[in-house]
Amino acid sequence: MDTKTIITAAVWATALLACAPATAQKAGGDTRRVYCWEESGRKICGDALPASAVDAPRTEFNARTGLAREQLGRALSSAERAVAAEAARQAALAAEADTARQRRDLAMVESYAAESDLERAYGERITLVDESVKTSQMGVANLRASLLSLLRQAADLELQQQPVRKPLADNILAQHADLLRQQAILQQQLAERSTLDRDLQDALARYRELKQLQAD
């Protein structure tokens, strides 16, 4: 046994002896504790926790049995508490999302009797998105052609050294804004369409797994 171990054992024994009278009076039902913490690089034990050690990491022992009851880390700073609270919030959101996914999966299994029914439902969604994409593409093409026509009118006026009057300028700005808006809608539709095939494959995999679980 090395010197450090001997010193630690002696400190622990002293702490227990200090608690012995109270322990003897409460045999079998004693809930008093012995606290051990580090201070200035030294391990200190006692039956009372000083204010200076309240936020320090410590181990709490049962005064009668000498068994560790609880091990506490240091108190968190306000920034660390904020981080912990945010982590807890994110974990709760993830748990809610997982629960919602499980409900959707169960509803999917109950709604579709066979894989072909599920594929048909996704096929209808794919068709609707494809039609929306075509409509948006036509809208973008028409808006672009209209804007180009207005820009040519403005260019011709400038070439003739005539002013581009406010109604025409306002119309150009409005057409340009409409074109940008329609292009953004088209991009969203294309992004949705690109994920539908993958979503279908994922849904089929979950469907087969849940069907197998029900069969077992």
TrEMBL record:
Record's protein name: DUF4124 domain-containing protein
Organism the protein comes from: Luteimonas yindakuii
Taxonomy of the source species: Bacteria, Pseudomonadati, Pseudomonadota, Gammaproteobacteria, Lysobacterales
